[in-house]
Amino acid sequence: MKDIPDARLLFPAVGIWVGCASAQLFYGAPATFLLIATLAIALIFLFTKKSYVLQLFCISIFLGGLISGIHEAALHRDLFRSYTNSNIGVVGVVTSDPQLSKSKIRGDFRTAQSATLYLRTKEVNGQAVRVPILISTTNNVANLIPGTKVAFYGKVSDYRLTNASAFIFAKSEVKILSRSNSISQLTFQMRSALRDAVQGLPPAAMGLIPGIVIGDRTFQSVELTTNMRATGLTHLTAVSGANLAIVAALVLALCRRIGVRGRTLWLIVALALAFFILLVRPSPSVLRAAVMTTVALAARASGNRSAALPSLGVAIGLLLIINPFLATDPGFALSVSATAGLLLLAPKIERFLMRYFSKRLELLAQTLAIPIAATVFSLPIVVAISGQLSLVSVFANLIVAPVIAPITIIGFFMSLISIPLPQISHLLGVVVSPFAMWIAGVANFCADLPFSTLRWSKGWMGVITLLILAIGIRIIFLILRSFTFLKLPIILILILIIIFSTTKFGWPPKNWLMAVCDVGQGDGIVLSLGSNSAIVIDVGPDPTLIDNCLHELKVKNIELLILTHFHADHVEGLPGLLKGRTVKQVWMTTEPTPADEFTRVKNWLGGIPSAQIYRGATFKSPAISFEVIWPDLKPILESPANNASISIVGSIHGHSFFSPGDLELASQEKVLERLTGKVEILKVAHHGSKLQNQKLVEKLSPKLCLISVGVDNPYGHPAPVTLRLLSHNCGAIARTDRSGTLAVIDKPLRVVSTRKSIWR
C-alpha cells in the first residue's frame, strides 16, 4: 500500500476547480442550477451516510461555484457596462509588468506598437472602486512597474473578461502619481540589468537566458518561439516548479555549507523563494509551484515526510480560492497536469524502464520518465488549445534536460550581480551561451523535421479523438501480449503511418510554373525560373510565412523582386525573403505611400539595386517574359497606393498570365484598354474584393483564377459578388485560405496545393 499515492486532498481540490470553471463557463441560470444540484446530491449522501468521497467532492464543487460567484460580484461589471464606448478617468496601481505587442498588420497598414498591463483601480470617475482591469496603451511604459500608482483617461472596450472587470484603451498619457516600493523597484532593476547583461551575446542566448531564468522573453525571436512551440519546449521559458526546485536546492546547499541548520535553514530557503517569485513575477504556474513548495517545506521543517501529491492538492485549492479565474486559464491547467504527470506517471515509467536497464542507467531512466510523463498528462490540453501534436517533444526535452540546471543556476547568479558587477555578469552569460544555443539548435532542428508536428482537431473533438486513438493502441497491444514477435512490426508500422501522414511528399510538385504562397491576408507570388531561381511578386505581411514558402519551394536566388505597392500586407514580409537569399534587382511602384512603409523597405533593401517602374518596362528570359502595363506617369488620386500597383501581363513557360496587384476600379478601367485578349492564369486583384471590373474579367476569361487571401479576414474577402463573377468566367478557382499554398503545374494546366492533392 505504501506505493499508492495519497490522493485524498486532490478530490476536494478538483471539486473546487470544477465548481469554479462551471460558474464561469455556464454563467447565470445554468451555473446556478448545476451548483444547487451538486449541493442537493451532497446532502443526500450526507443523510444516507454513504460515499464520503462523493460528499466531499460535491460540496467542493458547490464551494468552488460559490467562491467564483463572490469574486464575480466583486468585479462590478455593471459599472463598466454603463461606460461602454465612453471615456472614463481611472486611478489605479500597476499589478503586472507591461507586455509589449509587436506591430500588427491590419489590412493595408501596420499598427503602432502597444503594451497591455493589469491595474487594480483606486478610483473610476471619482468613485472609489477597487477591481482589476486590463489596459492597452501606446505610451512609453518603461517605468510602469508593479506597485506604481497611475492615472489616465480611457475608453471601455470590453467588460466581459474572465479575470478582469474591463478592458480599457488609454486615450491620454498614463501619468505616474507615485512610485512603487523598494522591493518592486529592486526586482525591476535586476530584470533590466539582466537584459543589459545579455546584450552582445548570440541571438539565441539573448532570448533564452532571461527567458529560462526569469521568464522574460523580450529578446526571443518569433521564429525561435514558433519552433519551441512545435517541439514542446515552450515550458522552458515559463518559470515553474523546476526553477523553484533548482533555486531551493542551491540555497539549501549554500546554507548547509556555512553551517545553517534546523528551522532557520527552511526559513532562509522560504525567504529566498519569496524573493525569486517577486523577481520572476507571480504567474499562475509560478504561484502553483510556490504554494506547493511552501507546503512541502513546512512539512519538512516540522519533521514530517514531504508528500508531493497532497501538496499539489493544497496548491490547487488555495490558488483557486484566492483567484477562481485560474480555473479556465490554460497555463494553469498545463502546469497542474504536467506536475500531476511527474508525480503519478513518472515513477511507473521509471520502474518499467528499469526492467530493461542496468543499475548504472538509473539516471537515464529518470531522465526519460520525466518528459514522457509530463507530455502524456499535458497532451489533451495542448491538443485542445493548439490543434497539433508534437511528435518530437519527448526527444527534444530529453536532449536539452542536462543544460537547464546550469543555465538556471548561472543565470540566477547573473541576475544577482548584474547591477553591481555588469561586466562579470556578461562574462557569465558568455559562459552559459553555448547551453542556450544548444536548446535553440535542438528546437530548430526538430521543428524542421517533416514529421515534427501532426495536425489535429482543436477543442473537445480533438481531445476525444486523441483518447479514442490512445485506447485503440492500448487494445491492440493488449491483444498482441501473447504475440510478442508482432509488437516491433506494429510499432514500426505506426511510426511509418505518422511520417507518411505528416510529410509533404511531392512538394513542391515537379516542374511547377507558378506558386501563390499562403501568406495570410496579403500577396506572395513566385514565378519559377528553374535551378532554385525565381521571380517574386510581393512578400506578404509576415516574414516567417514567406520565408517558409520559399524554403519549401527551394528558392535560393531571386532574379527579380517586384513590390507592386507599399501597403503592409504586400511588403512587411521582406526580411523573410532576404533571409539567406540573393536578390539581383528590385522593381518598385511609382507611388511611395504609405511613407513609413516605403522608408522601411528602402532600409531593408540596403544596397540591392532598385528602381521605380512605369508602364513599358519588360523582362525577358528563356522561361518567362512579361511587360508592365501599369502604372502610368500620371497618378490616380483615388486610393493612390492600390491604384499605382505594378501590373504585368506575359508568358510563363508558354502559358499567358496577368497579375494586377491590388488595382481598384479606376485603374482596372485603364488596364482594360491595354489588354489584347484572353489569359490562361489570373491572379485575382485585391484578394478578391468586390472592386472587380466585370468587363476585364470577361475579356480575360482565364482557365485558372488564383486568389491570395487570409482565413477569416475581417474584410469579407473574397466577396460573394466576386466569386459569382469568377464562377461564370473562370475554368477553376483556387484560394489560399482554403487550400494553403497553390502551385500551377503543366500538362494539363492545373493547380495543386499543400492541403489538397489536385482539385478543379
TrEMBL record:
Gene3D superfamilies xref list: Ribonuclease Z/Hydroxyacylglutathione hydrolase-like (3.60.15.10)
Record's keyword annotation contains Transmembrane helix: yes
CDD domains to which the protein is assigned, alphabetical: ComA-like_MBL-fold
Subcellular location, record wording: Cell membrane
Transmembrane intervals: 25-46, 52-71, 235-255, 264-280, 309-326, 332-349, 361-385, 391-414, 426-447, 459-480, 487-507
The species this protein was found in: freshwater metagenome
Ranges for domain Metallo-beta-lactamase: 520-700
Annotated Gene Ontology cellular component terms: plasma membrane
Full protein name: Unannotated protein
Keyword annotations: Cell membrane, Membrane, Transmembrane, Transmembrane helix
Membrane topology annotation: Multi-pass membrane protein
Domain ComEC/Rec2-related protein: residue ranges: 212-476
